[in-house]
Amino acid sequence: MDTSVDISAIHIITRRLVLRPIAMDDLADVYAYASVPGVGEMAGWKHHESMEETEAILQSMIAQKEALAVVYKADQKMIGTLGLHPVGEEETEAYPQYRMREIGYVLSKAYWGQGLMPEAVRAVIRYCFDTLKLDGLSCCHFLENSQSRRVIEKCGFRYFTQGKFVAKRLNKTFDDIHYILLREEWTDNGTD
For the whole prediction, is pTM greater than 0.90? Predict the structure, then answer.
């Protein structure tokens, strides 16, 4: 079962990151990473071509109240987003009584390979299970996105199913892999 979650007032602090509500003040930082070719395409959206495009998308994200800004403490830059979105039909059918959300994320290319996204995802998992009392989380990646696969596996998700994702803005269909993490299967190792 999908469940509504408003994360517009959440603040989570990890060793290197602050996860907080997205704000219009983040516009320049979002455009800086979202305009880089290859970043959005890994998640099914075309890289941004103008600040106005970024502004419209940022306003939409703020209104939806489903995504957090990922801020790197060392330089105070917003370097990505981490969202809790409605789960897919497959998850809803397989776990009809479970309160669930889908984790989705994007990270600035300049910060790839430093273990920052697993740190953020583990903190959000902890928050979802301990504070929001969700029963499960799902996450997915495109078949060719090995960086996302590694994040998902490091965070304890297990394979659930394979499917197709139609990226309308890219006019492309991707094979995607879905993973799931149930609260009863989760082990909090206390890191981050």
Answer: yes
